[in-house]
Amino acid sequence: MIKIRMKRLGRTHRPFYRINVMDTHTPRDGRVIEELGHYDPIEPDETKQIVLKEDRIKYWLEKGATTSETVGDILKKRGIQVKN
């Protein structure tokens, strides 16, 4: 099964997340099928906090990929319909 979820990067007290398509059996920081964007919660400019490839996200959702709760919330804020 395929899932859209976040992979944590950055250093201590300075998180940075990549939003990726991954197999559900892969560890959180494991092998990625495709990178779909990133989320930087520390960025002061809200327009730069979340960067997404919306066309590719819609493609993977059409193919049956599910999302983690956090990624689902981010996509809903951006107006992308998520079916979980």
Any descriptors?
single chain, 84 residues, 5-stranded mixed β-sheet
Task: Provide an overview of this structure.
This protein is of the alpha+beta class and 84 residues long. The protein has three helices and five strands; from the N terminus they run E-E-E-H-E-H-E-H. Strand 1 (2-11) and strand 2 (14-23) form a beta hairpin. The two termini are 13 Å apart. The mean pLDDT is 93.
SSE string, helices as H and strands as E: EEEHEHEH
Largest sheet: 5 strands, mixed
Mean pLDDT rating: 93
Percent range of helical residues: 25-40%
Number of helices: 3
End-to-end separation in angstroms reads 13 Å
Bin the strand percentage.
35-45%
Sequence-ordered SSE layout with sheet pairings:
Layout: E1 2-11, E2 14-23, E3 34-39, H1 46-49, E4 50-52, H2 54-62, E5 66-67, H3 69-77
Give a brief description.
With 84 residues, this protein is α+β, with helices and mostly antiparallel strands.
